[in-house]
Amino acid sequence: MVDNSDTNSKMAEGLAKEFNAKNPGIVVKVETRPQGTEGDNLVKTRLSTGDMTDVFQYNSGSLMQALAPTKNLVAVDDQPWAGKLDENFKTSVTSEQKLFGAPFGTYNAGAILYNREVYQKNGLRVPTTWDEFMANNAKLKAAGVAPVIQSYGETWTSQLFVLGDFHNVTAAQPDFAEKYTANQAKYATTPAALAGFEHLQEVHAAGYTNKDFASAKLNDAVEQLAKGTGAHYPILSGIISQLLGTFPEEKDTIGLFPIPGDDAAKNGLTVWAPAGAYIPASTTGEKLDAARKFLAFIASPEGCAAQANATVINGPFAVQGCTLPDDVPQVVKDMQTYIDKPGASSLALEFLSPVKGPALEQICVEVGSGIRKAPDGAKLYDEDVKKQAQQLGLPGWS
């Protein structure tokens, strides 16, 4: 069972078709479910009643933890392919030292998409520190290019300077996610975590955003980046598919680099892990053997190839030995270099902690528009997450 998004249903059909062809004794059929809360509730209900499909696709990270994996899922640590998984993905499907999923899909990143032609024309190099990034912005502004594109007309897009900066938070304070979940660390009082809010403020205060930042929508931002009227766009890398849908000729023009921090030596990418393919505890006997075989196929180079044949690949795979198709966009090639380098990528906070408040996008718009100062924004967000942590009944938040 997979969600009914176009990409995921195509990927599932592609995997089933290839697997069925290679395994004549087993038939994999694909069932789809709604996306969003409705689909979420369906997964949880079917798991609790023991009525789940033999294999199902679902989020990795803290949402997977909410499924009570040790009770409801079959552990797969003992499978030969488990050792071939990328470390970030392993972390996102591990609970109580046990591994529960195979990667379904590819990585996404919270990063800066940039126009390589604009960089070339202005003699710029990819920055590895925030100071270098701001120096590039000064040169771009002088050349008449909007240095940083923001699209606050679509509020969710405002969050990436904060959410995409988490690699730098982890590099400075490796236990932040754990302490944050236990209510022992805050954005406002942790300098590395506050930095994301400060970046929003600095870019606005320096006049580095596009003129229409307050009203621009995602499609406006994508157009400015593709046409080179804007140089940088802090966003999720997956939007490259939208950009290439409208501007296919810019496949090699748009590149990606991580949101830079203070230390060039620790420069790295904040990644969103692929979803997982899981086996529910209700799958037993011959069906369990077949399900294990199917997961082994998903987590193999053949499985990656089946996914690549079925849909456009917008990020690196999480399995060693999988290769990207030659025609992937430059953004994906750039991401791969960070995934390949040990220590140069780490998970976004939402994969490590269930604590996330609903008001972050609104707060980021205010800080990024000069309406609220960065420390106030961080403080307000710390307040915002409290309610949600209490609703989840997390220890330390009562």
From TrEMBL:
Q: Which Gene3D superfamilies match?
A: Periplasmic binding protein-like II (3.40.190.10)
Keyword Transport in the entry? The reply is: yes
Which family does the record claim for this protein? Belongs to the bacterial solute-binding protein 1 family.
Which top-level group of life is the source organism from?
Bacteria
Q: Name one Pfam family in it.
A: SBP_bac_1
Q: Transport among the record's keywords?
A: yes
Keywords, in A-Z order: Transport
Organism whose genome encodes this protein = Actinoplanes aureus
Q: Which residues form the signal peptide?
A: none
- Protein name listed in UniProt: Extracellular solute-binding protein
